[in-house]
Amino acid sequence: MASLSALVIARNESANIAECIKSMQDIADEIIVLDGGSTDDTVKIAEGLGARVVHHPEWEGYGKQRQKLQNYATCDWCLWLDADERLTDELRHEIREFIKKARQNEVLNISRANHVFGVRIHHCGYFPDRVYRVHYRTYTKYNDSLVHEKLDLPSDAVTVNSKNSMIHYTYATYQNLLFKQTKYADEWAKNRYQKKHKGCCFITPFVKAAFAFFRMYFLQLGFLDGRMGFLISACASSYTFNKYLCLYQIALEHSRKK
Fold it and tell me: Which domains does the chain have, with CATH numbers?
């Protein structure tokens, strides 16, 4: 019978890790948490729920953290979950059936029901928001990206879209949103500069930010989510502005060193 490793990377996720682990216990043969140097009770909570915790406090980006974690997995299949995500009963059943019947080159592409400040968001590009989260352990792995990492899928990969969705509590508070977006913007810019070796012109952050709002609020029907749709679109615009401003700054610093 096919076995399943449930894998989570975490750092200071004491508010989330328990419910995340509990949602996987019924289907996982092993649950492994890679802790990135938590200073709260994340490790204690995870171990108390039967998860194996491995420690890698040195941070090399999300992609490499996932690569390290995958090396500890021992089962046939891997299920990836972030600490702020939860499996539903229906999705657990679907995953069980998937690993029973799937070929090694099939990858389960799971939709996410995203919640912002406790409110379910139906538009703004927040649904179905599919992510590849179940794959045969030796078939693929994550890329090296510092942020917004993805599975490197071979050319013969077969995508299977899930019928059910996981629950994703993206941002609990506005402060939480600001913290994450500031961190992601900096890491995105570093990753982009490492790959492209070039920055952007001064006007780019403004143009990109304006288009980000237009796309999310109008093209992705954010206005149908009411005030939350406007707020999320504005936050996306701010995040985009910060990403490209960070990129501009990094390129400027490198040019001054030459």
Answer: 4-171 (3.90.550.10), 174-257 (no CATH)
